[in-house]
Amino acid sequence: MNIITRDDTKIIIVIAFLFIIGILLCIIWYYRKKIAQMEKINLAGINISSGAQQKLIQRIMEVAKQQVDAESCSLYFVNDETKELYFGVALGEKGSLIKELRFKIDDSFIAGWVATYKKTLNIKDVNKDKRFKNRNVAKNFGLNEKSFLTMPVIFGGKLVAVLQMINKLNGGHFSKADEKTMELLIETQIAPNLEKAKVYNYMQELFNDSIQTIANAIDARDEYTQGHCMRVAEYSIMIGKELGLDEEELVSLRYSAVLHDVGKIGIRDDILNSKQKLTAEEFEEMKSHVIKGTKIIEQISKTNPDIVYGVKYHHERYDGKGYCEGLSGEEIPLFARIIAVADTFDAMTSNRPYRREFPQEAAVAELIRGAGTQYDKKVVDAFVRCFDGQS
C-alpha cells in the first residue's frame, strides 16, 4: 500500500498552486499581447506606439488633446467602492500636481456632474457658469480655466471613467465636431483599453497573491528561512533599479527571485532542516533543487525565459566554479547574477541551524570580497550603493 506522507501532501499542494499560477500567467501574457496589438493603432495619421498599458492610455490621451486642440486634458477613473473620482491621467503643466487628488462623485463640480448624470458637458466659459461652486482645485493650483469638454466613458453600460478636455488653444470653445471626435475615440480606444487594463490588473493581482502563497509554502519547509523568498525579491528589485532595469524587467525579476528556491519542495525535510554539515551525498541532493525548480518554472513560464534563467543559474559563480552548468562571467544571465547577490546577503544576515546571523556590515564586506570571483562586481557595486544609501 502506498502511504502519502506529510511531505508528499505539501508537495502536492504546492504543485497545485503552481498549476494555477501557470494558468494565470498564460492569461496575463494573453492580455499583454492584446494590449501590444492595440498599441499599433493609427488615429488621424498619428502613430501610437508605447510600452505598457498605462503609457498606451496616456498616449491615446495625448493624441486626443492634439485632435481637438486642447491646452490640457484629464482622465478621471472611477472607484466603485468609495464612489470617488481620481486622476488616472492628467496631462499638461499642472498634471503631476493633481494626480493624487480624490473627489466624491456629486454634481458640485464638472467631472462629478458628468459622472452622476452620464451626459456630456460642453462649457464655453466656466467662469460664467454658476452651476459649479466647487472649483477650489483650479484656484489652489493656479489653473486658468475657461472652456471645458467633459464626457463620460462608458463600457458595457457602466461608467468607467470621465474624460475632460480643458481650454481650446485658440481661445475659443470646443465645437460639436470636437464632441464627435472624442465620442469616436472613447468608443474605439479609451473605453475598450480601460476594460482590458482592468481585467489585466485583476489577473496580475491574483497572480501576485498566488506567487506570495508559493513563497510562503517554500519558506515554511525550513524554519530558518521564513520570509527568505520575499526578502531576496526585495533586494533583487533594489539592485535591478540601481542597474537601470525597466518596469517590465523588474516585474519578471521579482517573479524569478520569489521563486528562485521553488525546487526545494522536492528536497527531503531532514536535509533542508539539518543542523549538521551536509554530507557530500546530501549536498548533491540539495544542489538538485536548481534542476527541480527549473523544470517546474519552465512549465509555467514558457513565454518569459528570463524568469527561468534566474531560477536555473542563481548558484553559478562569476569565476565558473558554481553549479549547475559551470557558466562564468556574463554567460550567466543578469537575473541570476542579481539573485545570487541578493540570496547570499539574505542567507548571511539570517540565522541558520549551524551559525548565527552576520551583522549587515560584515555581510556586505563578504560580498565585496567575493566580487569578481563568486559574484559579478557590477552587481555587488550596485548593491553596495543601495546599502550605503539606506544606512
Automatic annotation (TrEMBL):
Signal peptide: none annotated. Transmembrane segments: none annotated. Gene3D superfamilies: 3.30.450.40, Hypothetical protein af1432. CDD domains: HDc. Residues 225-348 form the HD domain. InterPro entries: GAF, GAF-like_dom_sf, HD/PDEase_dom, HD_domain, HD_GYP_dom. Residues 203-391 form the HD-GYP domain. SMART domains: GAF, HDc. It comes from the Bacteria. This is HD domain-containing protein. The lineage of its organism: Bacteria, Bacillati, Bacillota, Clostridia, Eubacteriales.
